Amino acid sequence: MTAAGVRNPPGVLRPRSARFRTAAGLRLAWLYLASRRVPTALVALAACGALLRAALEWHWIAGPDPGAQQVPLLLEAGTASVIAVTAYSPFGEPERITGRWLPWLRVGTAVALTGAAVGMLAAGAAAAQLPDGNLAVLRNVAGTTGIGLLAAGVIGGALAWIGPMAYVVASEYALLARWTTPWVWPVRPPHDRGAAICAALVFTAGVAVAAARGARDPG
Amino acid sequence: MNVEIAGVTRRFGRNLAVAGVDLETGPGVFGLLGPNGAGKTTLLRMLATVIGPSAGTLRLLGRDPASYGPRREIRRRLGYLPQSLGYYPGFTVAEFVEYFALLKEMPPAGVSAAVATAVERVDLGGKARAKLRTLSGGMLRRVGIAQAIVNEPELLLLDEPTAGLDPEQRVAFRTLLRDLGQRATVIVSTHLVEDVGAACTEVALMDAGKIVFHGTPAELTARGEGRGTGDAPLERGYSAVLAQARS
Amino acid sequence: MTTAVGSARSFGSMGPARLLRIELRRNTMIWMLPLLAVAFWFDCYHWVSADTPVWYPRAAELLDHELRDFSAFTAGVAAWVATRDSRRRTLDMVTSTPRPGWARLGATWVATTGWVLAAYLACVAVVYGVTAAKVTWGGPPWWPAAVCAVALVAVSAVGFAAGLFCPSRFTAPLVAILTLLLSSAIRSTSPYAMLWPTTNASPGNTGGLPVAPADAGVFYHVLPDLPIAQIMVLGGIGLAALGVVGLSRPAAGGPRPAIGGRWLRGAAAAVTVAGLAAAGTAAGLTGTARQGAYGVVIPALHDAASDRPIPYTPVCEYDGTVPVCLHPAYRAYLDVVTAAAAPLLREMAGLPGAPVRVAEVPSDVLTSTDDSNSTVWWAAGSAITGTPPVFRFPMPQFPPGPAGLTQLTEDVQEILAVTFVSDERLIPPGTDPGDGVQAQAAVELALLRPFDPQAGQDVGIMTPSSDAPSPEVAAAAGRFAALPAAARHAWLADHLGALRAGQVTLAELP
Q1: Buried b / exposed e across C48-58, counting CB within 10 Å, b at 16+?
Q2: Domain segments of chain A: what residues?
């Protein structure tokens, strides 16, 4: 073993041109997404969309009682849980001390997956009318994802699904008890401004924590 | 003989990790050297009955591990420390060692004493009630050694046991190895030739899935005189044997 | 050398017990207990403690809420715990030990499920304890509690198996959300939907399925047919899940260790088959379920002895008009019902068919469950019958709190008025009435208006497109109510028979 390869590493591209930087950036993004199992997450999100489609097609949402709103609510929480567990990092400390790209990768992944989740649920409901419409889906998924990301920062990415689960159980209770607080946005009407603001705040807080700290390391 | 291996091969898909190994060894400390990817860990995993050979015969402690009953008997008398030590962060040191003592079906009446002894032997008596998540890497390694020796095994397999140990602990560990080797077959896979020289009575050198040297540390040293590269005699013997095997 | 290895016979049962003790001390489910306690307090306890102080409705609420609150976390954490060796990279170490995989994994699963059951049983103890302090009759029904316990064990087993076979980070959340979906939101008119306990857990809630009456366990025993089928199917699914775990064989170099030897796999196969057989049998039996007079009847499981009435001595109150008698289970509402009925009974005194006694009867779930209408018409079974005439009515369902007592009062008054004026007609809301029926409605409204200005919403004579009485009926009711009491009484004495027969028109009302 000699030092020659270190001074003139074979096959290294001199990163002068934008094309090489873009390629490196895309490569970094892909490796990051792979490490977070994002492709599998997308499959899980698609499954939630398909389940919503099935629920609407087969009239699982039957009757005017609050149960009619629960299937979309639960699937929204499901997508938020899936996004939350993608925050788990298998690398731990060696990754944390790397350069400036990590926070952006975390933010980008969270936002992109949230958008994908909303899109897949909207696609699943495309043939039929969701009780509250797509705007409510966006609000609910974003807000509950924020809860999941906050949970990831506290209890770790792998258990972060507990945050959205606990929130949706509370929301179900709020639905039956007819609460009106905007902090339980899934039970508010789709155009409720207060609920949208609350959901946006929580989503922003979650993304901020994910960017700054990521998920708490296991152990 | 506690370990009898004849023509053992192990494949992972197209990768031939172990390519026809023959080995016999009895009580004592047996060192297993070799470069990265030589097949040491795979061989150790086969000896630990974690995976079976793709071909060849393997007898451990006079039994055939291919059958369920004999395999269970082997595992009762086996201690294994893998290269990558996993652990349950919420467990304490004592609980972790006790957990493995129970998994090894030790008589329940003797478990507490055995756990205390094992923890003391690796010099973690003062940390017995500490949660594993609070320990340093070297301490975790010692916890791993403790769980491997808690049942006073007749066959002890250690993969990189001194990784993360400070020099003082390595010296103590070699003493422990020599002590254990008086009663049991201890197979140590390591990159640290000084560990081999200090503790092992026999050494084998693996390369590309085959054993390219089997003898005493003195014989390995002799192979390197005037030929090998390295700072220590054993290192020169190591490099000389590898160079010859690859030429 | 002192060997630490004893013979197999000396191991005894203490080894697995100590293994279990370690698992119990360090199980992840312990961290979920505060969350489950909060969910119980704010959801289940809130609803149950406000409910009617009668055993079965509270037990059904307990089942419904506890299963929804607990099942998702149980399944998710069980799946999480099953992935422990994969996540913590201890697979090689535990594989190299002699303790069979089924024993090691069994300790992990038992510890996880044990904590859930302990928390659940504590919740049952709280609810049943609080209920025991308030109820005035009867004993706790154990079928709902048993069904919920078996359901939790089953979801734990399924979640554990899912985590073991698919140790992915997504397994736990997906298992949790699917369980919550099953518990909370699935509503189906298929009889097989009844196999999941929360589908129509609340008494009287149909969705077109057979139901237990709202007063189950009061006049007649709670029929065990459906709970037995539910326990069979849930227990069978749980057994099958555990059996499938035992069948697991590791792929070469794969993430799963062998669970046991050949005989263990044979036993696991037998357990799986038995579990599936039990579940399949129960599902088949549930397909034959029908609405019985006292609840859900599954012919193959039905014991005619459970159709016998439960003896009781009614509790009565007499305010000077007629005695009002209720089942002792509803003793707490005797004052309310008496106060509700007394003014109307005074108005009716001396008229043909005026009741001389008020008596509570069991709800008539057969008549009240209309296949074309998912709303249970609770008043079905009300009538003034016998010689001398007795007003018989089933206890209405009403919400908790003061608003509920108000509704109880209004319901009792409305049904008394309706059965007195036309005791054969109980028209579900929205039905198009005939002319004679409109006159009956006007008289009923007139009787009720002094007590309830909103009377008319539920009298059952609404225009098909409105919840309010038609202007003609309202006007006629106003005229009739404006008559002096003596004139009104006299007219009713002369015309009540014709009115009941539908022979009086609105125009003929004074």
Answers
A1: bbebbbbbbbb
A2: 40-212
